[in-house]
Amino acid sequence: MMWKVLPPFIIAVGVIGNALSLAAFTHRKYRRSSSTTLYLLTLAISDTVFLLNVPVRQWLRMVWNWDLRDTHGAVCKTSAFLAYFTFHFTVWLLVVLTMEQMLSVISPHLVRNKCTRSVAKFNIAAIFAAVFALTAHFLYGIPLKDAVVAKQLSLCEFINDDYKYFFQNV
Q: In the chain, how many domains are there?
């Protein structure tokens, strides 16, 4: 019963909340404000992509026994990539945002000069590039397999046992 009720509620509240955040942070009053606004705007986008990918897929699997990843090879790879990419990207955005907030408490004068929008753009781009490099292997290593070959519930699984070992242990 939890899988029928809870995920749609979480998805709806999350997407509506992120949409309101996007509307607020893109308003002309905040468009050119602090670096924190830029981090929160990027965080709202990343969270929305995560919510529309992972919980929706799991809900469809549990309620209707249908896996979105099994529809096409590109969907399989993209969904797996986005699940891990957005998860890691969001966490590292929160780390940088927390560090900036900590710095604003410890040294408020330094924040005004060091935590600018251009520094935030650079940090977001660096995090994006690093997380992309970390998770790009999903675009190669998770193909859609035939139903006869697949060993699990999903047809979207690791390309071979060596890759599975790499993913789980490396």
A: 1
CATH number of the domain enclosing 92: 1.20.1070.10
Q: What's the pLDDT tens digit per position in 32-63?
A: 778 889 999 999 999 999 999 999 988 988 88
DSSP-derived letter for residue 116 is -
Q: Over the range 85-109, which residues count as b (16 or more CB within 10 Å of their CB) and which as e?
A: bbbbbbebbeebbeebeeebeeeee
73: tokens are 């090879």
Once rounded to an integer, what is the mean pLDDT over residues 11-31? 89
User: For the residues 69-74, what does the mean pLDDT come to?
Assistant: 81
pLDDT, position 168: 81
Structural domain that includes position 126: 2-139
Evaluate whether residue 104 is within a structural domain: yes
Q: Which helix (H) or strand (E) holds 111?
A: helix 108-114
Q: Which distant-in-sequence residues (6+ apart) come within 8 Å of 40 by Cβ?
A: 21, 25, 97
Question: Do 10 and 55 contact (CB within 8 A), yes or no?
Answer: yes
